Amino acid sequence: MEGEYVLVVGSSVLEMAGRSIEVPQPGTRQQGHIHASPSGVARNIAENLARLDIDTVLLSAVADDELSEYLINHSRLAGIDCRHVLRVADRRIATSLLLYQSAESVTRLDDLSITAALDSDYLMEHEWLFRDAALVVIDATLSEEALDTLFELAQRYKARVCADPTAPRLARRLRKYIPNLFLIVPNASETAALCSLDEPATERKSAIGTAQRLVNMGSTIAVVTLGERGLAYADRSGGGYIRAIHTEVVDTSGAGDAFSGAVIFGMLNSVPIDEAMRLGVAAASLTLQSEDTVLQSLNPDLLYDELGI
Length: 309
Ligand SMILES: Nc1ncnc2c1ncn2[C@@H]1O[C@H](COP(=O)(O)OP(=O)(O)OP(=O)(O)O)[C@@H](O)[C@H]1O
Ligand SMILES: [Mg+2]
Description:
Mean pLDDT: 95
Low-confidence stretches: none
Number of strands: 14
Structural class: alpha/beta
Largest sheet: 8 strands, mixed
Strand order of the largest sheet: 4-1-9-10-11-12-13-14
Bound molecules: adenosine-5'-triphosphate, magnesium ion
Strand content: 15-25%
Number of helices: 11
Helix content: 25-40%
Radius of gyration: 18 Å
């Protein structure tokens, strides 16, 4: 693919994840294990890409405080170009609070109000970054106004756009842009929101069908991720299904973002679509074994070693 870097646009979040060490009992004070991680779907995908040696530029918004400084420093050390990240005075850094009731059940609180600062003006100021981007990657925290501008710029510079729908509540705002997408990677419940399904497709056949439906709606490639059941994918030439790798799960947070990052890494390296999907599964599997939202030791060799399993 032409272009020099991947331009990633969307949220940067500080994530706090807590687990009770005792049997959880609401309304009581308990011993817990609490872990803070740099996060945000866009930032996580950017970090996965940078750790896979892809030049990555991030457009995002943080506050003007020490926590934001920590988040940006971490991202910069991971290899992301953060020079254009917006610092917003008098605002709170985006934060997510995750409280795990069990490995599968989590209550999540998101405070992403600062992402409103990623508006059309900010994107227009960085119009020049769209010109040489090999790909543009977005999450769905962008406002409709920002999305309109982003797709206009992508069209102007013929940049292909990959989208992570982020959450069922946010996925709907991507619906009207599906014909402009190169790649969309929703999980089962985000797919239900995008395609207005009554029930999320969680089985192999129905998931391949919904991936094909997203392609019929206009995305060049669509992937429906199914957690421990793997994923279904489709493009104009057909579709397929790939199993997940059975892994000792330490923390599920960030698996989807690692998946998207590695699939994009594969596409930038012109690997066939099914191998790009397998790279995604390998990256997700590695990330599930780590408490961190992005695997800190990720690199291309490690990814290919996991693929060999
Ligand atoms: N419990 C699991 N066991 C094995 N693989 C898993 C598990 N959970 C996720 N994966 C892998 O990660 C991929 C993406 O996971 P999932 O469908 O949960 O995405 P997501 O809901 O977007 O995740 P995230 O919460 O990180 O955004 C799956 O296709 C699968 O390969
Ligand atoms: Mg996800």
